[in-house]
Design a protein that fits this description.
heterodimer; A: five-stranded parallel sheet; 20% strand; B: alpha/beta; seven-stranded mixed sheet; three-stranded antiparallel sheet; 10 strands; 44% helix
Chain lengths: 121, 278
C-alpha cells in the first residue's frame, strides 16, 4: 500500500485529504507543520508528501528544500497544496523540487489528477 | 418529464446532430432542460417544450440541443494520442510541407480544452526538437455557447487542475481575476467556427490532421456513415484522423473509409481506394 504524509496546519484540510487519499488506497500519516513533516520523513520516508505552503514553525518551501537533501529525500513525490495561487509562487515551488501543485480549494478529482501527473498513482 | 417528452427530446437530438441522448437518467436531462428553460424565460420544462411547437422553435432548438449534448473534457485528455501527434505525426507531416503551415481541425472542441492541449503539445514538440512547427488549428463545435467560452481561453481554478500539470499551467496560462487564461500565444494558434458534424464538413478545405474524439461513440449507429464521410472528405490524402483510444475500431465505424495507422493508438489514414469509390 502506498503511503502519503499530509503536512498542513489546518486539521480540516488534513481530514479532507486523509479521506480522499484513503479512498484512493493510500495509508496516511499527518503532520501539522514543516518540522513535524521532516521528523515523520526521517522516521519513515513516504511515497507522497502533500505539503502546505504557509505553516507555523517551518513553512512548506523550507521543508521541501531540507527534505531533498536528506538521505532518501529525493524519493517522495511532493505535491504542494496551498492557497497561494500566483504563477510566481507555483513556479517557485516547482523550481524547488515539487512534482506537482494543488491550488486550494480542491476536490477528489483534482487530487487524483495531480497525483497521476506527479507519477504517484 | 414524461416518457413521451423524453422521446421527443431524444428524437430532436438524433435528427439534428446524430447524437444519441442517454435517457437512462431522466433526472440529468431534466436538470439540463430546467437550466435552458430558466435562461430562455420559461417557468417550466413543459412550457419550454410547448414553445417548441410555436414560431419560437428555431430560436430554442439549438440552445436546447447544445445543453443536452455537451460533455465535459479535461486538459491533455488521451495523452497517448496527443503525444503521437506532437512527437511523430505533426513533425513528419511538417517536413513534407516545405514551410507551409499544417492545418489541423479539432472537430468537437467543446469549451476549448482539446485545441489548447493540442497547441501545447505542438509547442512542446517544437521546443524539444528545435524545429519550427507551423500549425493552424481550426476548432469547431456544434455549440455556440461553448465556442464563445472557448474563444476567451478562460478556465476556472477547477478546470485547469484537471489533466494540466502545474508546469504547463504556469508556462502557458496567466491569471485572470479568479480564473486562468490561455496565453496570447496559445490563443493565437486557434481559430473558431461553428460546425454541425452531421450536416457539414469544415468547408472545401483539406486538413493534414483531424481530431474527432468522443463523438463517434455518442453518434447513433445509423448516422455514423455520414459523419465518417464528412471526416474523410476533410482529410488531405496523406492526412491523419485522430479519434479517442478504442474508438472507431468496430467494422462499421471507420472502415472502409479509413485504415488504422500501424503501431499507433487511435490514429487512422484515409483509404485511397475509398476516395476513388466515393
Amino acid at each position: 500500500m502506498k503511503t502519503c504524509l499530509v503536512a498542513d496546519d489546518s486539521a480540516v484540510i488534513r481530514l479532507l485529504a486523509r479521506r480522499l487519499l484513503e479512498a484512493g488506497g493510500y495509508q496516511v500519516r499527518e503532520a501539522a507543520d514543516g518540522a513535524e513533516a521532516l521528523a515523520a520523513c526521517e522516521e519513515e520516508m513516504p511515497d507522497v508528501l502533500l505539503l502546505d505552503w504557509r505553516m507555523p514553525v517551518m513553512n512548506g518551501l523550507d521543508c521541501l528544500s531540507r527534505l531533498r537533501v536528506m538521505p532518501g529525500g529525493d524519493r517522495p513525490k511532493v505535491v504542494f497544496c496551498s492557497v497561494e495561487t500566483s504563477r510566481d509562487m507555483i513556479r517557485q515551488a516547482l523550481d524547488a523540487g515539487a512534482d506537482e501543485y494543488v491550488m486550494k480549494p480542491f476536490d477528489g478529482e483534482i487530487l487524483t489528477s495531480k497525483l497521476a501527473l506527479a507519477g504517484a498513482l | 418529464m414524461t416518457p413521451r417528452e423524453l422521446e421527443l427530446i431524444a428524437r430532436l437530438c438524433l435528427v439534428r446532430t446524430g447524437r444519441e441522448l442517454d435517457i437512462s437518467a431522466p433526472e440529468s436531462v431534466s436538470a439540463r432542460l430546467n437550466t435552458v428553460a430558466r435562461r430562455e424565460g420559461y417557468s417550466s420544462i413543459a412550457d419550454l417544450l410547448l414553445a417548441l411547437r410555436t414560431s419560437e422553435a428555431e430560436r430554442l432548438v439549438w440552445p436546447l440541443i447544445e445543453a443536452l449534448t455537451v460533455f465535459e473534457r479535461t486538459f491533455m485528455e488521451g495523452p497517448t494520442v496527443l503525444r503521437q501527434l506532437g512527437q511523430r505525426v505533426i513533425p513528419t507531416l511538417a517536413a513534407t510541407r516545405r514551410g507551409e503551415p499544417l492545418r489541423i481541425w479539432c472537430a468537437a472542441s467543446g469549451a476549448g480544452q482539446e485545441p489548447y492541449s493540442l497547441a501545447i503539445s505542438v509547442l512542446e514538440a517544437a521546443a524539444q526538437r528545435g524545429q519550427d512547427l507551423k500549425v493552424e488549428i481550426y476548432a469547431s463545435d456544434v455549440s455556440v455557447r461553448a465556442l464563445e467560452r472557448a474563444r476567451t481561453g478562460v478556465f476556472s481554478h477547477f478546470e485547469v487542475q484537471k489533466g494540466l500539470s502545474a508546469r504547463r499551467l504556469v508556462d502557458h496560462f496567466q491569471r485572470k481575476d479568479d480564473a486562468w487564461q490561455a496565453s496570447p500565444a496559445l490563443r493565437g494558434m486557434v481559430r473558431w467556427r461553428r460546425v454541425n458534424l452531421l450536416a457539414e464538413g469544415p468547408g472545401s478545405a483539406r486538413f493534414d490532421v483531424v481530431l474527432c474524439r468522443g463523438i463517434l461513440p455518442r453518434t447513433a449507429t445509423q448516422m455514423r456513415p455520414a459523419l465518417v464521410l464528412n471526416l474523410y472528405n476533410a482529410l488531405a490524402p496523406d492526412g491523419v484522423l485522430a479519434v479517442g483510444q478504442g474508438e472507431g475500431e468496430g467494422p462499421a465505424d471507420l472502415a472502409p473509409a479509413l485504415n488504422v495507422l500501424p503501431g499507433m493508438d487511435g490514429l487512422f489514414s484515409p483509404n485511397p481506394d475509398f476516395r476513388l469509390a466515393a
